[in-house]
Fold:
Amino acid sequence: MAVIQATKISKTFFNPSESRAVKTLDDVSFSADKDEFVVLLGPSGCGKSTFLNILAGLTPHDRDGGKVMVHDRTVLAPQPDLIAYMFQDSILYPWRTVIKNVELGLETRDMSRAERRERAFKYLDLVGLRAFADHYPRQISGGMAQRVALCRSLALETEIILMDEPFGALDEQTRATLGSELSSICRELKRTVVFVTHSLAEAAFLGDRIAVFSAQPGRIKIEIKNNLPRPRVMGSPEFRDFVDELWLHLQGKPDEKPEAGPATGRQASPMGAA
Amino acid sequence: MISPATARAALIIALLAIWELSIYLSGASNILVARPSQIAVAGWNMIVGASSAPDFYLNIGLTIFELIVAYVIAAVIGLSVGTMVANWKALGDALEPLLLALYALPKVILYPIIVLTAGAGLAGKAFFGVLVGIFVIIFNTSAGLRQIDPNYLRLSDSLGFGPRRRFFSVILPAAAPTVLAGLRLGFGYTLIGVLTAELLTVNSGLGRLIDWASFNFYTPELFALIILAIGLGILGNMAFSSLERRWVR
Amino acid sequence: MGPVSAASSSAARTVIAIRLVCCAVVLLAWDLSLRFGLIDPLFLATPMQTLQALPKTAVTSLPHIAASFLSFFQALALGVGAAVIIGYLVNTSSYASRMFMPIFQAGVTLPKVTLLPVLVLWLGIEKTTIVTYGALSAFFPMIVNVAAAMQEVKPNQITLARSLGLSRVAIMRKAVLPAMLPVLASGLFYACNAAMMGVFIVELAVARVGVGSYVHDLAVTFRTPELYAAVVLTSLMTIAINLAIWYAARHLSRWRTIDI
Structure:
């Protein structure tokens, strides 16, 4: 049952200095189901971030029949009660403490100060940062800042969370740690997540389903179901095989089809234009 | 799309035209306002000596002399104190509240005392100019010297630079932008100080000329003198800016 | 006492020592230059005389101080208000900013004092001139700082606020204003300084009420001890106000990273 659904979304950017229109997205259709963790995978500049922004209501799409729906509501502007958005940069307000940053999204809601604080603490506990509640952003590391940004998104308690390469600016180890934390948190809290990345390993590790993008114009080439059992092990042979498979699809060589088999999670179902 | 600079120039020219025409057409009193053309004529008359301005070149010269004297003193003392403050931390800490207090003081309130002690002549005016201009030089010099990237110094030490070489090859160039900016602003502020003093004691210099013009309601001449004074400021600023650009790569 | 704390307390002692030495030198020079006739006592009052004149001067100067500070606040409100409004409008467009800001930047160091005769000509020698000149003095440093303050607002901070569904007003309150505050406070410091200086200049030159005119009066009637006392009093007050703003501005900037 689709929770968020995009139908035939196109996006054209006009370049005034070159008087030229660039079609960044071309007729993209996509949906995510309840409690699903979907990954949008593609090379840099293929439009996946733009697509995510359109899903979030942050960027308008072309008005030619396409639309984004969450349940029965059309998305044309940010919907903070339904959709939470996490950026690549943590964007914590430097003049607010960690906990005040987490509370930022809750201040427009009908909640008392005590309720806001309680909820903020609940999510800070979840990522193990309760001790840093009164610190300022300049006093914490990059990984910690992204955890706080995650708390900020989670605290909104929305059904859907959209994430735009949130671990892109972090080092390898922090990335891995945060990745597994994110995975378990999202399953525990039962949220629908749409996650953008260009990392194959991240896609294979986190995603239930992976939509592979092609560039210029951006389209979803293929959607691949990830049947690797959880908890996933990055170094395992099945994992590596799956990553190889993703790589082939990314490169556009789907005809080198590996052997199909239920245990190894290799069921490809081409959907969307190629 | 015309560049902002061109648009700005066009705007200024347009304003001058409106200024000229609106007064011409409305026939407003010549005592209250002056047209740009009248101002230009008055200025020209003063320059060629065809006006009744008392000792035009003598007075202008006096003011410029005061300015130079005041600035040289401010620069020398300012640079020295700034360097001392930067090199000796205890001195910097000790003097910081004092310097801040002196900067925060509207020094013009001290002016009557200065006139009483140093007289209403060149000395008093130059002294006041120094007082106004010296602080920004001190602040910028000490800031420029203090904020040199320690990595530069580590590098020069590791290369075995002696103290002389260290100063001229590393410290001077690194601190130059901030210090030069301080010297440029210092000129502007010294000029403000000297002109303020001139206008408060109108016995000689540009102040005397401005007093003559405003007392007699020679408004075009008054405007011309004001433009001259402001022009001094602009010239000085441009001169310093071009020096900065040449020395700071 | 360990070596580190010993070193820092000796550094603190050096600082205090330097300050005491400076004060002593100044007072000594002041006193001695009179005692040995370097300066005519008609023109200079001794520290003792100044101290004695303080109480009486404090009382007499009260109405003048009140008048000056009223002018000061009016000038500040006008100058800063105009700077904030015009500064905000001009800087919303990059083109307008590049076109107009150089004019305003030049205006900061231009000797506006030369415009005083013209202002007197147009507006007379009363309150209007004082407030106008003070406002003009405060306007330029403030507008330059408003422009700089707007640079402090990062676009992604606004995007974040939008993604959280904040209204335009809420975005101003929670994302724009806090980012701008430190630089605005610093600008206010310079504006206050300039406004005070401006008010005093006009009062010294032409006015009949206010600290500037009071001081001028005392000077021309050679009431030297009272003059010194008045100057000391005014200096202390203006320094106090300026320092208060300076430290307030520092306090508002404490969340900013110090770049190494």
